[in-house]
Write a structure and sequence with these properties.
This protein has 168 residues and is α/β, with parallel strands linked by helices. Helix content is 37%, strand content 18%. Strands 4-5-3-6 form a four-stranded parallel sheet. A two-stranded antiparallel ribbon has the order 1-2.
């Protein structure tokens, strides 16, 4: 995207930096996301026309945990701005996300990792409250998967190898 600025008798083009998009997915238990992850990644790779030219990557709770444990992300983090939020943010969440780094818990490290991945773009974040910790990031979009109660019970029972009563 180009904008033009007037300066000393002429117009100079200025390029705005457009960050590649990212996507968070939250779900109800048993909504069946595991069937959608790979096809969604393929769809995004084939239909993403953003200038980044990089493939999309899936980050679920186990992968984000490994990233944190192995310190594979830079220490700096994208600051959280509650005033830029796309929907109302509980004040305690805003306060928690702006906690001093020396007092961080696993939640804070997870939130920082998710924010760093989304800031880079082309990240598909599944769970880990990704929709909440990136609510202020303009390049990140949020999807919530829901399902009927009986369908969710069936999916959870099959996925976890338990009876319908246990799943309920």
């Amino acid at each position: 995207m180009e904008k033009h600025l007037r300066h000393h008798g002429g117009i100079a083009p200025r390029r705005e930096v457009v960050k590649p998009p990212s996507l968070t997915i939250s779900r109800q238990c048993g909504a069946g996301l595991h069937r959608l992850e790979r096809p969604l990644l393929e769809y995004l790779d084939n239909n993403d026309h953003s200038p980044s030219q990089q493939n999309w990557a899936l980050f679920d709770q186990s992968f984000i945990g490994r990233l944190i444990e192995e310190n594979r992300l830079p220490r700096d983090h994208t600051p959280f701005f509650v005033e830029h939020a796309k929907f109302p943010v509980d004040p305690s969440l805003g306060e928690r996300l702006n906690h001093p780094e020396g007092e961080w818990t696993f939640f804070h490290h997870s939130a920082a990792a998710i924010r760093k991945l989304c800031a880079r773009g082309n990240a598909l974040i599944v769970g880990r409250a990704g929709n909440f910790v990136t609510v202020d990031m303009p390049n990140t979009f949020h999807v919530r998967l829901v399902g009927g109660k009986n369908t969710r019970i069936d999916v959870a029972a099959k996925h976890h190898g338990m009876s319908l009563t246990e799943a309920t």
